[in-house]
Amino acid sequence: MLRVKDIDVSYGQVQILRRVSFDIQEKEIVSLLGSNGAGKTTTVSAVSGILPVSHGQVVFMDEDITRVESFHRVEMGLVQVPEGRKLFPSLTVLENLEMGSYLKGPKALRQETMVSVFSLFPVLEKRKKQLGGTLSGGEQQMLAMGRGLMAKPKLLILDEPSLGLAPIVVDEIFSVIDKINREGVMLLLVEQNVSQALSLSKRGFVLEQGKIALSGKGGELLADPHVKKVYLGL
Amino acid sequence: MENRPFLEVQSVSKSFRGLKAISDVAFRMTENEILGLIGPNGAGKTTLFNLVTGFLQPDAGRMEFLGQNIVSLAPHIICKLGIARTFQIVKPFSHLSTLENVAVGCYNRTPSVEEAEEKAWEILRFVGLEQKALHPASSLTTPDRKRLELARALGTQPRLLLLDEVMAGLNPKEQGDIVELVHKIREAGTAILIIEHHMRVIMGVSDRIVVLNHGVCIADGEPQRVCEDPGVIEAYLGKGAYACLGSKT
User: Which domain does B121 fall in, by range?
Assistant: First the structure.
């Protein structure tokens, strides 16, 4: 499990996060919501070790990882799929996936992991010799998620997986997220697609101006008048 | 005036090597209309935008704006005629101020710095960015960057504005704010052609919707009718999304 306790994060002089705390339990999907500029990407960057925290603690699988470098966090099974996919456009689909299993442990399991990634995203197998940059938006998102899975995550962080995708593809992505979770992977989901994210999540946390303003079960948050007004525009 | 077909696209095609990105596409727009353009990723929506704005040349077909041929005209000439666009990935001049970014667009109509900046102030007030006028564009949040992207295009004083996924990356509330702005732009006399994936948004904002799939136009009509079209449901919406829309409307 993951426990984030009272973290502060700053960019230079500007403090973005103030005493942010939340947790993810075994096998859980948790959504992190909030307006643009609320600090969602900053939060996940602190969790995956891309940004340093100036106060507080990040604990993963009972180990304090607050000062652990990000590549060691990947070794421990904490893997982030970045916003905007960040594929290697001039590598093939297969090579992009292999890059996900670059570390020793995942590398040994590369073939069997690849089989399970292909069963989640059959289109990737069809496109395996194609260059990453030539895929459609939906396929690129699938490849980014597939590459993340190749690292054998215990916790997978997805930063806006539905960005810029057609409704039919969004449905597919969300159903795969559900499947990944059923296989026992914890998920931290950052989404603007608030209603779809919350209906999949057991719990959600709402960030406002760098602080956790609300938390609760997915369904409860969906019904919350404040969430409805501020995030759903209803 | 009301129903004059002010944009007319006829049998337009465009291939990239072997791939037919746009195949025999035709549609019309009337003055002051909001036309939604939807379709799966890779359907050719942005290519169509690139054709109408002169960033790409069609292999075949005709395009007329206000009765004038616009095929083979350069983008800046088309912009002078009154067609402006936004880009999916917003790229403001990050070291310039918000005001200066909009003024860049305003030089489409005037060579005078004073007049351009005056117009830019007017547009910033219109889109609600006047408080950030003197901030560097790089300091804006995502929703404000989207507003700036709109403001830059409005600076050119278009009759027709093409919006390419301006709601992407915004939450539903923030999308609602932009929808309001889109309506305001139309009320001020500019027609809008809009690409958008968020169905709640596109259904609410469009007078009519055109659907592309594999470069072919598969539907053209009122939002509600288009969303009930089995071909559209199969190619784009998916059964789940359609059921969800049905419950909302």
Answer: 94-157
